[in-house]
Amino acid sequence: MMVRWFKSFFVVSSLVLFSVISSSTWAVDVSEGYLKIMNSVVVLKTIVHEQQVSPQGITEKKTSELGSGVIIDPKGLVLTASHVVNLAESIEVTFKTGETTTAKVVSSSYLADVALIQLETVPESISVSSLGDSDKLKVGQEVFLVGAPYGLEHTLSVGNVSGRRVYDDLISMEFIQTDAAINSGSSGGPMYTTEGELVGIVSHIRSRSGGNEGLGFVASINMIEDLLLNRPPSWIGADIIPIKGELARALNVPHSQGLLVQRVAKGSPAERLGLKPGILPVQIPGAADIMIGGDVIIQVGPHPIFVSKDGFLNVRDYLSSRDGPLQLTVWRGGEWVILYGEN
């Protein structure tokens, strides 16, 4: 009886001891890292206008959207996700202290889903997140995210790096996969190492339920530096999708390739230029819904649109080096139209 009791005691004691050792070995306290960065994380509230077809004709719908961002410069530059601000008519920024200000988009990479905005006023209470090196991240390494899921501002979630996803399409892109919780309102929020170094910006999730299922994707900070900080592209204020082949022919575009305008932000360079957005949603088999009825951009300056890496680079280099008004050639309602603007 004594031997049986001793064996049971030994097993229970071993399990408790293993649990304590495992917890102390694997659990990482990120409270110091959070305290270090919390005043650099902001909540973004945007107003977006959209046109749509209704029985009454073309109508406008105004919606309010929520996202997050992080201050990376003492002069008030904030990194966020492009889909949070790219079409925003207005952006309200709320700080950890409860103070608010407005902001304007200064640069955006729609393909990589990252954007840079400028605060109109910069409170003294802010802090700045220091950029880390996302190339040093290892699969299995613990990281933490801060955002405003469902409006719960400055919420922290902890997880691990689950993988790296590199895409070499029109531009080279890298997303860090993580199982840290990401929900609506988290988009644009920062991802940190446990030491509080900024290594990414929350982009999107893959989910069948619409909520967090542990498949989150974060734009890597090294990619962001290359695409957005070292050579920032201009903000146009339009969502566009590349079209070619059968889709271009179905839309009666007299060019093999182009850029179909989906939506245009109120007050943006795209609106001032006169770009027309799509007005009718359609479902393309094997693809997401698209908006048709808007302009198809055929040429940017002297460069015809080609849906390829070289074509994209030609257009990017033209936009960054041109001297004079921007010129776009679009296909609209069966006619060629040339648009001019300062952008």
From TrEMBL:
Q: From the Swiss-Prot or TrEMBL record, what is one GO molecular function term?
A: serine-type endopeptidase activity
Provide the protein name: Trypsin-like serine protease
Q: Which Pfam families match?
A: Trypsin_2
- UniProt xrefs under InterPro entries: Chloro_Bact_Ser_Proteases, PDZ_sf, Peptidase_S1_PA, Peptidase_S1C
Q: Which stretch is the leader sequence?
A: 1-27
Q: Which organism is it from?
A: Litoribrevibacter albus
Q: Keyword set for this entry?
A: Hydrolase, Protease, Signal
GO biological process, alphabetically ordered: proteolysis
Could you tell me the superkingdom of the organism this chain comes from?
A: Bacteria
Q: Which Gene3D superfamilies match?
A: 2.30.42.10, 2.40.10.120
PANTHER family, alphabetized: PEPTIDASE S12, PROTEASE DO-LIKE 8, CHLOROPLASTIC
